[in-house]
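Support request from a user on the community tier.

User writes: "When I paste my structure tokens into the form, the page sometimes reloads and wipes my input. The last time it worked, I copied everything first. Here is what I submitted, just in case something in the input itself triggers the reload:"
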């Protein structure tokens, strides 16, 4: 181990081949943490996952075999490390298994050695979503259930609220059902002036890893609110128009009509509409000030050169 990395916590990432998990593994390796990644026997013939795991191994990660169907194997895995980060799936149109983490919480409790656990959050703060709409509230309710188990077991924690991942919410100028910028027309939510927070996924990885050995983030919620990325949808669209040199035709949809669009949609679509409503009409990411048990990542770690949205959008030109 390099001298400057001595004394750094050993970190296990559970869900490391996933969408945000792989960024967190990458950040952990690049910040010099001894990085362990869970390898589940259930991946079977999924060669993409296996190759990603082997790629992590080449970069210095240690692969640890364990299964959610074998509690003792999870206990043995978490015993190897100081910090556990879970990036368990939680997006309905991909896969949603937030409550599986209750097994991981149980394993951490039994192992008794873990100094910090970061459960799979990385989005809207579920503690502020008691009023959320059905059916999308399931995301927040389940994340709160996991929090309750963590706190009941007295496991030291950090919750990371990462706001809107840029590739999901900024690249498409916050349009649903596409991941690419619209070519001619853009739909604005209400007046399009509600402030939203867009965060590059690699920055989510970087900030998350920064928190794990930091006493200032112990038993706290950390919000990632890079100041220049706090933008309204209109401001985001303007950035794209400046980059592309083309004005988009703007139409607007009222909150009522937007909610009505849920009808006839499949479950994942309805969950999505609910989340968009809270973000773009209600302003749930920005309509509160941080409290005492809460910190803001870009203030804690001013050395991180986070990606601004005009820079982020360039690749979509
Ligand atoms: N803020 C935002 O804009 C935003 C956007 C997307 C997601 N998120 C949040 O980020 C978190 C992670 O989501 P994601 O999209 O990155 O997840 P994902 O890629 O769909 O899945 C992550 C990992 O979950 C594990 N997993 C899934 N099903 C499993 C099962 N049955 N048993 C054991 N492990 C299983 C897998 O781990 P292996 O590596 O072991 O296979 C998988 O790679 C969620 O909390 C989600 O709500 C936030």
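"...and here is what came back when it finally went through:"
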């Amino acid at each position: 181990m390099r001298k400057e990395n001595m004394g750094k916590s050993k970190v296990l990432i559970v869900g490391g081949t996933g969408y945000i998990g792989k960024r967190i593994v990458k950040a952990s390796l690049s910040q010099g943490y001894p990085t362990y990644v869970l390898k589940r026997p259930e991946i079977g013939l999924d060669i993409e996952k296996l190759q990603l795991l082997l790629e992590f191994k080449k970069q210095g990660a240690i692969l640890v075999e364990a299964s959610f169907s074998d509690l003792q194997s999870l206990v043995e895995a978490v015993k190897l490390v100081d910090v556990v980060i879970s990036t368990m799936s939680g997006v309905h149109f991909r896969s949603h298994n937030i409550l599986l983490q209750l097994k991981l919480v149980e394993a951490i409790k039994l192992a008794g050695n873990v100094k910090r656990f970061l459960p799979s959050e990385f989005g809207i703060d579920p503690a502020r979503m008691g009023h959320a709409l059905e059916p999308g509230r399931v995301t927040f309710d389940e994340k709160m259930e996991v929090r309750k188990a963590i706190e009941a077991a007295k496991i030291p924690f950090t919750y990371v609220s990462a706001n809107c991942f840029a590739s999901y919410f900024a690249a498409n100028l916050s349009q649903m059902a596409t991941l690419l910028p619209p070519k001619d027309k853009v739909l604005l939510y209400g007046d399009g002036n509600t402030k939203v927070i867009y965060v590059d996924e690699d920055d989510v990885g970087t900030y998350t890893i920064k928190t794990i050995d930091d006493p200032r983030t112990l038993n706290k919620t950390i919000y990632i609110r890079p100041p220049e990325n706090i933008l309204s949808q209109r401001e985001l669209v303007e950035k794209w128009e400046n980059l592309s040199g083309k004005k988009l035709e703007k139409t607007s949809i009222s909150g009522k009509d937007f909610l009505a669009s849920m009808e006839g949609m499949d479950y994942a679509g309805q969950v999505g509409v609910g989340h968009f409503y809270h973000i773009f009409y209600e302003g749930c990411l920005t309509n509160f000030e941080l409290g005492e048990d809460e910190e803001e990542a870009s203030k804690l770690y001013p050395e991180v050169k986070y990606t601004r949205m005009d820079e982020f959008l360039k690749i979509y030109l």
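Agent notes: The reload is a front-end session timeout and is unrelated to the input. The mean pLDDT is 97. Residues 15-21, 38, 40, 43, 49, 68, 87-91, 94-95, 97, 100, 120-123, 162, 164-165, 168-169 surround NAP (CB under 6 Å). Escalated to web team.
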